[in-house]
Amino acid sequence: MKNILVTGGAGFIGSAFVRHMVNTYPDYNIICYDKLTYAGNMDNLLDVSDEENYRFERGDIADRAKVQQTLAEHQIDTIVNFAAESHVDRSILDPDAFIHTDVVGVYILLDEGRKHGVGRFCHVSTDEVYGDIEDGLSVEDDRFLPNSPYAASKAGGELMVRAYNVTYGMDTVVTRGSNTYGPYQYPEKLIPFFTTEAIDDKPLPLYGDGKQVRDWLYVDDHARGVDVVLHKGESGEAYNLAGENQRFNIDVTKRILSILDKPESLVKHVPDREGHDRRYAMTAEKVRDLGWVREYDFDKGIEATVKWYMENEWWWRKIKTGEYLEFYKQQYSERLASADES
């Protein structure tokens, strides 16, 4: 590996990976490739913007000509694909964008990478491809049962990765991460959303009874996990990056309020979203065998995360305008009105 293309590198997890790789491997050239949609943010990369082994290219993974140009210009030998539409709520409102990026984009990236002679293709997926897990833990060879347009699009892209490995002999690996949280996360996801709303004493619209179970993984641990799989994963294999920190959403919400010293009366139970999976849970035994060790348990991670949003209002306040407010109104206004009436 020498010239690594990190697609979706200005997003939340992608930017954490870019920062990690730039600082950990000074002999690698890290080329960050991002479309800079609403969730892509160049502020996420300020810490590495002046580093000699970092470059940025703006582009869409579904733009074949731009992908071809970038692979050739930077002599790319390795691709790590974080690029994705990734919010379930948005996938319910507009599935088209998810199919475009998460399926068509992945296909184009694979196809051009194969033609260009890319040596390794690492695809970043999600635990949501397994669907709703009533009990037990998902393992890597479990079947896919996606329940949202987002999860289905991620499953489709991942199956395309498998096809290119089997059919063309392309050297591919896949990671499936659990719910990831930490600094620089776009504030529509649960932890940054509720943290930033609570800072301003605004109501927190919690879906249903709040007893949905999610497995929480700190973003820096996720980035290190992708690094381990990139370097040590067996071609054609998938690896669960599990936080192994299962929590009810209501308990996560109360923990945020406790750290902020805000009242639990801010919580408003609102009608649940369509097709809301009740529980995700995976085992990380397979990737631990490669040497991956998490550094953050949930208590340490959530305190660090809430503190970061408290200390970095410059980053999130300018995001929570315009397009963000339109999405908030569309997704939560009626739900909050219904909660107030109940």
Notable traits:
12 strands; single chain; Rossmann fold; seven-stranded parallel beta sheet; UDP-galactose 4-epimerase, domain 1; alpha/beta
Please describe what this structure looks like.
With 342 residues, the chain is an alpha/beta fold. The chain folds into two domains: 3-181 and 216-241, NAD(P)-binding Rossmann-like Domain (Rossmann fold, 3-Layer(aba) Sandwich); 190-213 and 245-278 and 298-336, UDP-galactose 4-epimerase, domain 1, CATH 3.90.25.10. It has twelve helices and twelve strands. It has helices at 12-24, 64-73, 88-93, 95-116, 149-168, 190-199, 219-232, 249-260, 285-288, 298-311, 313-316, 323-341; strands at residues 3-7, 29-34, 54-58, 78-81, 120-126, 172-177, 179-181, 204-207, 213-218, 238-241, 246-248, 267-270. It has a seven-stranded parallel β-sheet, sandwiched between helices. A three-stranded mixed β-sheet has the order 7-9-11. α2 runs parallel beside α4 (95-116) and α4 runs parallel beside α5. The longest helix has 22 residues, at 95-116. The mean pLDDT is 94.
Helix/strand/pairing category: alpha/beta
Task: Specify Rg, calculated over alpha carbons.
Answer: 19 Å
Quote the CATH topology of the largest domain: Rossmann fold
* Largest beta-sheet characterization: 7 strands, parallel
Strand order of the largest sheet: 3-2-1-4-5-6-10
| Shape-level CATH architecture of the largest domain | 3-Layer(aba) Sandwich
Sketch the topology as an H/E string, one letter per element: EHEEHEHHEHEEHEEHEEHEHHHH
The CATH C-level class name of the largest domain: Alpha Beta
Count the DSSP helices: 12
Distance between the termini: 58 Å
Number of structural domains: 2
Overall pLDDT score: 94
Percent of residues in helices: 40-55%
